[in-house]
Amino acid sequence: MFITPSRGLWKNEVEQPWISTQPLGLAYIAAAVRHAGFPTQVIDAYSLGLSAAEIRAQIQDFRPRVVGISALTPQWPDAEIVAGIVKSVDPGILTVAGGPHVTALPDKAASHPDVDIAVIGEGEQSMVEICEAIAGDGSLDAVSGIVIGNDGALRTTSARARYMELDKLPFPAHDLLPQTAFYNPFPAWGKKGNFSCIISGRGCPYSCRFCDVTSQQGKRYRLRSAENVVDELSWINATFGVTQFSFRDPSMICNRRRLLEICRLIGERGLDIAWTCNARANEVDPGMLAVMKKAGCRLIQYGIEVGNARMLKEIKNITRERVAQAVSDTRRAGISAHGYFLFGFVEETPETIEETISFALELDLDSAGFAVMVPFPGTQEFDNFRREGLLLTEDWRDYDIGSKPVYRHKNVTNEELMSATRRAYRRFYLRPRIIARHLRGVNSLQTVRTYASSVRQTFFK
Ligand code: B12
Ligand code: SF4
Asked: Which atom of ligand 1 sits closest to the CA of residue 210?
């Protein structure tokens, strides 16, 4: 059995997240475990907002021998509570923790009294081998890529190699997840009920200082074949009626030839879908954008981060001109362009904050997201702030986008950083042309509700 922890279990006050999408990592592992012959179940308590009692009842019903718990950094305190709930049902159930936070700090995770094993990195094969060891007489010490805790000193087993042949993994077990109507994606990604995320590869070669995808998944793009990706799109479309997809890869367009093949296959199979993806501004060109548009791409999200030319070079190795070109080419191709921006890099000053806001306004973006940078454990930025003694807390609940900064900045106060995001949102969105574009996109009550939550979170927090 696999569980995503509900938000707010630690304070005994569960909150329904205003954005939720399919937990693909757990769905991949559940599919692998089922493929190996073990009955399994997924409780997406995070997205459903389940209480501790509801989680306990489902564990009691299923009576698992092993429970896997997934955690991003701000979810870790809730994941600890879930491990405690499992042990309260039956101390003999093996608790296995995994996911980005556990991969960054496996020893700490495995040291928790209610956690038996921490899995480092991709969990499919490790979890299958753990289940086999528990079902038979196998030894957990023979399973690579794990830290065994809770029976005395921690033991770390040999490192596990990353999967190179992603096409061989079973598709994520969407049939074990709640119906798509329970997921509440960003309105720009799709609508409740007919939306799904998809991942077309793993890894990223760029190592941006604030991001831990590289330390999680490695520096090399490992790509699924175009055929395999479109097979999954077709399966989800035919089985669950999903027509809107969001590729959550750092950049699903990184390999031009594969991208063009994906687009060709979508057309050849007559798949009537719309999709969004992330990209790096240096990777797009007008020819590629025209093909993407024809295959259903309606939004590209660019991680732009800052406006100062020197910082842009240092952080993203790109120029302002190249970013502006990518955004205008995208819009010219009839695809919406979104920009992500962050405040709080070590080099930040009051002046660079203004440059970021001005740059966001100069670009012809349809939408933008602004946040104070959170240095997640496992990133270079986390090490930088910690080394300089500037980290204010290691209470992981505070490591959430939208929380107040978890570090003291040398050049700007935390209040300046917080007010920069509010100012940036106001200046970006309270422009007639942006308001008009967004009003055109409001096509359901759900979209209105999600927009209202975003406005509340953004302007009135
Ligand atoms: C989709 C997504 C979301 C979705 C769904 C999250 C989810 N549970 O999957 C939503 C929108 C809800 C979300 C929210 C957030 N996200 Co997010 N998200 C992603 C994204 C883009 C894709 C996740 C994915 O499907 N990956 C593909 C699968 C195959 O990989 P995976 O999920 O890591 O799972 C593998 C392993 O981690 C492991 N594993 C995972 N769980 C388990 C459990 C067990 C038992 C085992 C054994 C193994 C295991 O095995 C899996 C299969 O190989 C990633 C970036 C990325 N490309 O991975 C960021 C990412 C995971 N998010 C991140 C962050 C920071 C957040 C937020 C904190 C802030 C934000 N960006 O808004 C919030 C957290 C909300 C909260 N308070 O709890 C960081 C995580 C950093 C960290 N140390 O926690 C990432 C890595 C992005 C980044 N650039 O750094 N996110
Ligand atoms: S921010 Fe994007 S490009 Fe940079 S390392 Fe992370 S995933 Fe790769």
From this structure: 90
